[in-house]
Amino acid sequence: MLESLSSSFLAPLLIVASLVASAHILLSKEDVRAAIGWIAVVWIAPGLGVLLYLLLGINRVRRRAQERRRRRLGDLPGEGEGDSAALDVLDPTADPAMVAHARLAWRLTRMPLTAGNALSPLIDGDEAYPAMLDAIAAARHSVALSTYIFQWDETGRSFAEALARAAARGVRTAVLVDAMGSPFVARRLRRLGIEARAFNMPSPGHLALLNLRTHRKLLVADGCQAFTGGMNIRDVHRRGGRHAFSARDVMFAVEGPVVAQLMSVFAEDWRFAGGAPLEGPDWFPEDLVRPGGAVCRTVSDGPDMRFSAVAWILESILAAARNRVVVATPYFLPDLGLIAALSQAALRGVEVHVLIPERSNYRVFGWAAQAQLLPLVEHGCQVHLTPPPFDHSKLMVVDGYWALIGSSNWDTRSFRLNFELNCEVYDGKFASRIEAILDERMAAARPLSREDLVRRPLARRLRDRAAWLMSPYL
Length: 474
Description:
This protein is α/β, with parallel strands linked by helices.
């Protein structure tokens, strides 16, 4: 009797719960494949499917980032005046297609272009880490640091010691490390007197946070000197470290007005992680110098946005390309939209080069990437496999004028799950320097031909396609 009563009560309850979950999925999911998948889970496993969706399927990261940035950076141009005010620092001789792209990027990010910036590439940890440590040592007012991996090795300890010395002499410190990429590091730093926080610590009730990681890499000293790019803090990026040098990468020293945009993104992340607001001249000096001629814009991206700003910007710049595109990324698993954009550029006659590591540090990633390369090569894109050490750099140059630097890989995790930080640079001199770095690496790489891909044994092709099925989750 009790069993029949409970089952007659439970069945309608499960149906109602499944209907409510399905309605939420239909109203909140932008990707039709994700929507279909979650609705299938909800109805195939009644009750359990709803529970899984509650734990893993709902994006609870909601931040009013644009409004807070507007308050922090001052009044940005409004809708009526925005385009001219946001684009007037561009070179007046710039290609109209490039100007149209800049307009799109402004409307996506609401970050204006800033003139007078200077950027210098720092190759590998042997160049980047000493410069970053010197900036911490010279800081008088504040140091902000954000990273995905802060490894407690020789390199990590040198940063911890430099930060501790800065805090001891009265410099305000704020260190943000990812809870999954750097477990327990925030606690260790706090023991040294450094103000540190872990980003998005997962909990049993919020398992979705396992995927929502901060992948941003940024150091800002005194609000006026910044370092950003794709490099974590760990020995593997150094030739002189105790551990073997196994990952190449590039960081960039940045000065100029764009540093305020970079610092604004960090301040928003710090507040989101529970830190006190970072305000005032210690963090945001009123008069930033203009030491160079580069025009820049910060591009932040993350799962708190309805779409990937970086992916849209990449598609837009590929449509604007006229002569040459060079891309370097350690993880190459783009969606169909980006594959189409690369292919269309090549079919228009643009010289398209894609540099990816010959051996991935995650074997399944490499297999999945191989499964997507044939259409690109058939459409005229030139794929180059860079030899070891593993190239962790994330760089892109278009037409010797536009460049993108930062933390985003060309994969689903960067475009949809991670919080990423990038910087658009409109400057021929800077673009030429990055292009020279990429051309040097291309010269040492192995070109991948159509025959290489077609003649692979059937077992390898099946393996790669099976790995490709997992690409949304890699």
